[in-house]
Amino acid sequence: MPAVSKGDGMRGLAVFISDIRNCKSKEAEIKRINKELANIRSKFKGDKALDGYSKKKYVCKLLFIFLLGHDIDFGHMEAVNLLSSNRYTEKQIGYLFISVLVNSNSELIRLINNAIKNDLASRNPTFMGLALHCIASVGSREMAEAFAGEIPKVLVAGDTMDSVKQSAALCLLRLYRTSPDLVPMGDWTSRVVHLLNDQHLIVTSASTDLQDYTYYFVPAPWLSVKLLRLLQCYPPPEDPAVRGRLTECLETILNKAQEPPKSKKVQHSNAKNAVLFEAISLIIHHDSEPNLLVRACNQLGQFLQHRETNLRYLALESMCTLASSEFSHEAVKTHIETVINALKTERDVSVRQRAVDLLYAMCDRSNAPQIVAEMLSYLETADYSIREEIVLKVAILAEKYAVDYTWYVDTILNLIRIAGDYVSEEVWYRVIQIVINRDDVQGYAAKTVFEALQAPACHENLVKVGGYILGEFGNLIAGDPRSSPLIQFHLLHSKFHLCSVPTRALLLSTYIKFVNLFPEVKPTIQDVLRSDSQLRNADVELQQRAVEYLRLSTVASTDILATVLEEMPPFPERESSILAKLKKKKGPSTVTDLEDTKRDRSVDVNGGPEPAPASTSAVSTPSPSADLLGLGAAPPAPAGPPPSSGGSGLLVDVFSDSASVVAPLAPGSEDNFARFVCKNNGVLFENQLLQIGLKSEFRQNLGRMFIFYGNKTSTQFLNFTPTLICSDDLQPNLNLQTKPVDPTVEGGAQVQQVVNIECVSDFTEAPVLNIQFRYGGTFQNVSVQLPITLNKFFQPTEMASQDFFQRWKQLSNPQQEVQNIFKAKHPMDTEVTKAKIIGFGSALLEEVDPNPANFVGAGIIHTKTTQIGCLLRLEPNLQAQMYRLTLRTSKEAVSQRLCELLSAQF
Amino acid sequence: MIGGLFIYNHKGEVLISRVYRDDIGNAVDAFRVNVIHARQQVRSPVTNIARTSFFHVKRSNIWLAAVTKQNVNAAMVFEFLYKMCDVMAAYFGKISEENIKNNFVLIYELLDEILDFGYPQNSETGALKTFITQQGIKSQTKEEQSQITSQVTGQIGWRREGIKYRRNELFLDVLESVNLLMSPQGQVLSAHVSGRVVMKSYLSGMPECKFGMNDKIVIEKQGKGTADETSKSGKQSIAIDDCTFHQCVRLSKFDSERSISFIPPDGEFELMRYRTTKDIILPFRVIPLVREVGRTKLEVKVVIKSNFKPSLLAQKIEVRIPTPLNTSGVQVICMKGKAKYKASENAIVWKIKRMAGMKESQISAEIELLPTNDKKKWARPPISMNFEVPFAPSGLKVRYLKVFEPKLNYSDHDVIKWVRYIGRSGIYETRC
């Protein structure tokens, strides 16, 4: 920057600023500013042109006033004029004003852009620098639009000075950050490559030029750190030679760290360690050199005991990532004592937090008991800010690495005892889930909670767990006279009045479970339920429970009680809710990585960290295959009459095909099926969980059907899989194509499935839609017939009376005619009948039959292979309430099927 | 009740801090940070910060703030703050940083006296001056002390006994400020007069006074007997919207008979305050004419008309014509007085020393504008005016002020009485 000459001092500005500073009050300042603004306005308005110096001075004053917090709405033009000046100071002030007071006036923008373009094109490096700085500091989208193409040119031009190149690079970075879309992608990548070359050039030149640039005996620390960080953006190099060199470099850095310090100054160690930590980050990033990883780990281990708190913090943090690498996990584990020590003795809470993180990361089956014990003991003195997190971590570790579940139960109960307030709902839900799903710990759990509850003061969460577990498994310890049913009950009830409403509600449920488990305490419990404090409780929920449970216990027989109050079924396995909570608390990235990597590993180490879900569910829900025709297996639907009428043959076929998976047809679906013969849209199936709606359209031999699956509950369906099944007979005649739907259906949501239909040839059967899903842990299986019938491919044909009878006579072959006389199932209404015939697909021909009461229709069935002409005649007999339906088509099977379908309609 | 009272200078430095209750916490800083140094100017006189209420008034550059954690009567707190200003002014003149710094011992002494555990006590200057003096400690005799005690704690706390004047004299000032907002077409949008009757009494003994004015209700009551008087006084009487009195006025008597009787404190005090909104005599009419000539020029012409008896003279007339924010030059021509463009205030200020009633004067100005990028239209703030006229714009007239002193031998006729009316402009604005 050129030295500011004496004439550039701008005395007027200095005077103005000192005036402002001397103002006694805000009002005085505003007055002074108003005066100055009026002065500047009159100067700018003045007819005679201002010289550059005064223009600069006034623009400066305006800028100062603006920075004091006042609005400036003029002076932009003058500032733009300054841009075209040849003097550095004037140009500088102009750019400064423009970058501070960005104006959206389009005309001005044009002028400004023009000025910037001129400066970029000039070969004067200072001017180019100013222009680039202005672009970067404005950094708006408009600027990006105008100069995104220009700046890379400056950057790559051979003759630009280094400082300008630097500015250009930074400027481009800024524009790229604000509007990454504006730089054409192909163009951009080539530029990146170019830039990298450039950087490498600097690297090589740096090795020569910067050789003697050392900062407290560390050669070029900033450059090194930046380069190491740059390398972290790339995957490990493939070329072994490059890789070798890189490894060599990293080794050198690690070696250097071992050398005794060359200086006692803090800057020396800071610079050295900065390079070292970046190197370690790079090593972790590559995660491919076990040797280096172990060395890095050892290096960090040394830092763990360093005096510097910051170093210890960084070491713990880096180790966390190291712990997740398979190569260094074992090496990290050797430092467990140091880390535990850090947890106990560190004075800074953030460092302790890191220590907790690291312990969590390095935990595996071998050291879990030790780490969990340490964390538990630390929890007693831990800072309140990190308690909840530690609680979650302990809960997760205890669950994940539990060798035997008694240890798990002990740990969690301890956790509740030590930090009950921080134990969130999820944690104690989880204990109960696990205890219920694993019958080997139930007795132990009951015994332990019973003992824990005997403490004079116990946390409400413990009461909840205790209440639940004793209510389910209290019988397992009832044999011991020290924990007889009555003692259990009195123990729980002694806590009852100290608890909040939800806990009391839970305890009431426990009591009614006791009524089932131990009939001998029934009178005692009934007395409690009958007391005014329960029956007339101010809380509605408690009151209702008390009333209902009391009635239940008096009215219901033992059998009913045993059924109603049966032991809870195992919970479905899903992602641990505690883990989800921890993720939410810490932000997804940190935990997820760790978790994923650890899960991979733990699978082979532990052979499945969680109780096997498949086996439990198989036992719990009766599989439909076990009892083929016992309709009790069809889960939600009430047992109805077996669907024997009509399509039973079809059903047998379906079963023989895939009996193991498909449930029997849902009751009532037959009726629905018939309704769809004459219409295309409507509800096909509905029970208390699921609703299936249809919408279909047909053209010639093609059709499309939209199936809507609606979840009527508030919980989601899992593994939701609808399948279309065509029997062997049907397969060659009907082509169905569909895409699989999303396997989860949220509560209250509706999913849509499209089925493309092609009729290859005439067919009689209908395809079956089978739906399987899990609802709240139970497996559901529903089958319905899809109403795709032959008549859907009807094309109506209009014809005159004589044409009709001519064709009618042509189809006089006895196989071609099918006649059916049947009793009317519905009232015989002419209009309805007409609508049905039209809905059936054929044309309704008026004034064809000599008897006006008769209905006559004609149409063509389109299949891929053939077209089948079809004539029909329906003769109602009102007195007898009978119909006679006659169908004549060119194909016997078609006549038969159509007659069947249509007869069912009247 | 008031938890504490603080006085700050304009920079927010604490000059006086007196805490009466401990519940207010670190209120001193809270007020400074959130009100005095607030980024946005705080315009509400009551601020709530962290469930603590701050009531403040500003006198020149001095902030007075009363703090409380309780739900107090805000009007009471402000009344107290005003009283406090009056007391301070009576002791050491103008309230300025300099004066407060020089008298801080006295101020603490006063605060101890007029607020007791946050409850306001006797804040009558006359009474205070008997026992809080500025001239060192004058050792008082037992007799004097007991007299002070009985007076301060007695029924008439505002006046001591045994006052003697050779010449019994009293001065009555009716001070009014008239507020107006008028549309450009001359339609009155809002107008009201707030007035004060200030009395300065130099009377011996314990005189009983009775004050009478042309209050509509009183006149009508009296006029019931004689029919012709009602018709005559109907025009002269005024309707008072609301009024407040000095504590010496017997309110029970005012409520029953609407008569204002009192034993006045010695020296100057404010007898009553009132407000009227009907039949206001507007002393001046402002007729503005603004014409925009293109984007860069504005022509303004303002005519003022005086609207009172030609024999009266208005004084200190000042018309303030706001100019746009992008004014770059102004030329003014006026027939009377002096006019000047004040850039620091963004206004043309036109001053006329004197003007008789029923006269007219005019100013015209050419304002040059600098074209700006801002499309914001100039908001055209109203033209405001200041003046002083020797009559009461509300029409209030003092009918009598009778003095009775039964114990001493002077009668109503011996008292020399002076009455003066001053009408000043409050916010007197005309839109343009």
Please report the distance between the alpha carbons of the first and last residues of chain B. Answer: 47 Å
- Number of separate helices of chain A: 39
Radius of gyration of chain A: 42 Å
Specify the biggest β-sheet of chain A: 6 strands, antiparallel
DSSP helix fraction of chain A: 55-70%
The biggest chain-chain interface is: A-B, 19 and 17 residues
Question: Which regions of chain A have little confidence, pLDDT < 50, spanning 5+ residues?
Answer: 1-6, 203-210, 588-661
* Subunit arrangement of the protein: heterodimer
> What Rg of chain B, in angstroms, do the CA atoms define?
26 Å
- Class by SSE composition of chain A: alpha+beta
Identify the overall geometry of chain A.
Answer: extended
- Note the beta-strand portion of chain A: 5-15%
Principal-axes shape call of chain B:
globular
Mean pLDDT across all amino acids of chain A? 76
Unreliable stretches of chain B, pLDDT < 50, 5 or more residues?
A: 227-234
Strand order of the largest sheet of chain B: 11-13-9-8-23-21-16-19-18
Structural class computed from helices and strand pairing of chain B: alpha+beta
Fold blueprint:
The complex is a heterodimer of chains A (906) and B (432).
Chain A: H1 11-22, H2 26-45, H3 52-67, H4 76-83, H5 88-100, H6 106-121, H7 125-138, H8 141-147, H9 150-156, H10 162-178, H11 185-209, E1 214-215, E2 218-219, H12 221-231, H13 240-258, H14 266-286, H15 290-303, H16 309-323, H17 329-333, H18 336-345, H19 349-362, H20 368-379, H21 384-400, H22 405-419, H23 425-437, H24 442-453, H25 460-473, H26 485-496, H27 501-517, H28 522-530, H29 532-535, H30 540-555, H31 558-564, H32 577-586, H33 588-607, H34 613-620, H35 648-658, H36 669-675, E3 682-686, E4 690-699, E5 702-711, E6 717-725, E7 734-738, E8 750-759, E9 768-775, E10 778-785, E11 794-796, H37 801-810, E12 817-823, H38 830-840, E13 843-845, E14 855-862, E15 867-877, E16 882-889, H39 892-903
Helix pairs in contact in A: 1-2, 1-3, 2-3, 3-4, 3-5, 4-5, 4-6, 5-7, 6-7, 7-10, 9-10, 12-14, 13-14, 13-15, 14-16, 15-16, 16-19, 18-19, 20-21, 20-22, 21-22, 21-32, 22-24, 23-25, 24-25, 25-27, 26-27, 27-30, 28-30, 32-33
Chain B: E1 4-8, E2 14-19, H1 27-36, E3 46-49, E4 52-59, E5 62-68, H2 74-92, H3 97-102, H4 104-114, E6 115-116, E7 119-120, H5 125-131, H6 142-153, E8 169-182, E9 188-202, E10 208-213, H7 216-223, H8 227-236, E11 242-245, H9 251-257, E12 260-262, E13 267-276, E14 284-293, E15 297-306, E16 313-322, E17 327-334, E18 338-342, E19 347-356, E20 360-369, E21 383-389, E22 398-404, E23 416-430
Parallel strand pairs in B: 8-23
Antiparallel strand pairs in B: 1-2, 1-5, 3-4, 4-5, 6-7, 8-9, 9-13, 10-12, 10-22, 11-13, 14-15, 15-20, 16-19, 16-21, 17-20, 18-19, 21-23
Helix pairs in contact in B: 7-8
